[in-house]
Design goal:
This is Glycosyltransferase 2-like domain-containing protein. It is a single chain. By secondary structure, the chain is an alpha/beta fold. It folds into two domains: 144 residues, Spore Coat Polysaccharide Biosynthesis Protein SpsA, Chain A; 29 residues. 34% of the residues lie in helices and 22% in strands. It has six helices and six strands, in the order βαβαβαβαβαβα. Helix 1 packs parallel to helix 2. It is globular. The model has no long low-confidence stretch (mean pLDDT 87).
């Protein structure tokens, strides 16, 4: 069994954070155990923190860390890394505006059975209908993103990595590059 801790960096995500936490709670897992789900709410001015607190009462694995002032994604990731530094787990970072399929965490973390694996990444799939104009544009954008990522890895929407990273540079714009 591989244990992981999930970190979600959130800024004003009241419209999605509940669905994301529910999707993570309902993951189908056979080789993986989710030990903690840590939401770092960074300078939120909406109901994000309130929604996360409700989930904390439902599921003891869910924790809320609050940054009063928004300091950027790198600072939120560093707070998460500091919180899990003594855990011999796999770390998973997931963007707060995504929704994983029921087996996403399993597929992302299971490869770490091989000790040579250091990092894995997910492929975002839009939920928009591709037969509508905006849905077509969104699908095209993410398909291009995926094709580029196959050549130059860019998978920051959801990544997993060995818990050996202590901190990333505060001014980084691409967190997975700093982690890799």
């Amino acid at each position: 069994m591989i244990t992981c801790c999930i970190g979600i960096m959130a800024y004003n995500e009241e419209s999605n954070i509940g669905s994301l936490l529910e999707a993570l709670r309902k993951q189908r897992l056979s080789q993986v155990f989710i030990d903690k789900i840590i939401v770092v709410a960074s300078g939120c001015t909406d109901r994000t923190e309130e929604i996360v607190r409700r989930f904390c009462l439902k599921d003891l694995r869910i924790k809320l860390l609050t940054e009063e002032k928004r300091q950027g994604k790198a600072a939120a990731i560093n707070l998460f890394l500091k919180t899990v530094k003594n855990c011999p787990h796999i770390c998973v970072l997931e963007s707060a505006d995504t929704l994983p399929l029921k087996d996403t965490v399993e597929k992302l973390v299971a490869p770490f059975c091989n000790p040579k694996i250091g990092m894995t990444g997910a492929h975002p799939i839009p939920v928009n209908q591709p037969d509508k104009f905006m849905g077509f544009v969104v699908h095209l954008l993410w398909e291009l993103h995926h094709r580029i990522a196959l050549r130059v890895p860019k998978m920051g929407e959801m990544i997993a990595f060995q818990n050996v990273v202590r901190e990333i540079p505060g001014d980084t714009a691409v967190d997975e590059v700093s982690i890799a």
